[in-house]
Amino acid sequence: MIIAIDADSRDTAEADHLLYELFGVVDQPVVACTHMVSGGDRPHVAVSLMSAADLADDIRAHFAEHHVGLAITRPGASEPELSGPSHLVRGAYVAAVEAALGTAGRAVRWPGHEQAHGVLPAAELRTRCGIDHLEAVGDVSVTDDTLIDTRDFLRPLRRGGRLTLQLQPAAGNLLIPFELQHQQKCCADH
């Protein structure tokens, strides 16, 4: 089952907050992602949850008093169940399609996310954390022995049905995730 929610989150931090709120509502293993939504008044971020369990009633109850777009896709259904304001339903639908195809999305929770702690060799990071591919910026090569400081925060991207973690060089001949937990927003000092 896939449930996508567009609550008109302004950025990934706000969307992450929404997902953490939902993790308290659904006590089931999930793959949870954020999805960029373009068009409309301004770009924003929607979220998706994929689970073997039926989470629809819990999610609907949680958002009963909120204006959000919902797209609920059940296995074998010919089309999704859509509800909410039309401009948000569109974003939820986009997120549901991306989640179903595995073509886009920034993973916040997935099987293995809880193992992302400390400094790990690349091969161990892939195995323990369920990451399919490691990609370093600037044509830096990543071998099985390359050390990666997880900084206890990974946000891999879904591409072609695989989880890809983008990395960048850091001091001490280490690689670190490209997306850091506490990022300074561009132009924040202007």
Please give the order of strands in the largest beta sheet. Answer: 5-4-1-3-2-6
In percent, how helical is the residue content? 10-25%
Largest sheet: 6 strands, antiparallel
Radius of gyration: 17 Å
Kindly report how far apart the N and C termini lie. 44 Å
Any idea how many domains? Answer: 2
Strand residue content: 25-35%
Q: Give a count of the beta strands, DSSP E runs of length 2 or more.
A: 12
Shape: elongated
Instruction: Briefly note the structural class of the backbone.
Output: alpha+beta
Topology:
Elements: E1 2-9, H1 12-25, E2 31-37, E3 44-50, H2 56-62, E4 69-73, E5 81-83, H3 86-101, E6 106-109, E7 119-121, H4 122-129, E8 133-136, E9 147-149, E10 157-159, E11 162-170, E12 174-177
Parallel strand pairs: 8-11
Antiparallel strand pairs: 1-3, 1-4, 2-3, 2-6, 4-5, 7-9, 10-11, 11-12
In a few lines, what is going on in this structure?
The protein is α+β, with helices and mostly antiparallel strands and 190 residues long. The chain is 24% helix and 32% strand.
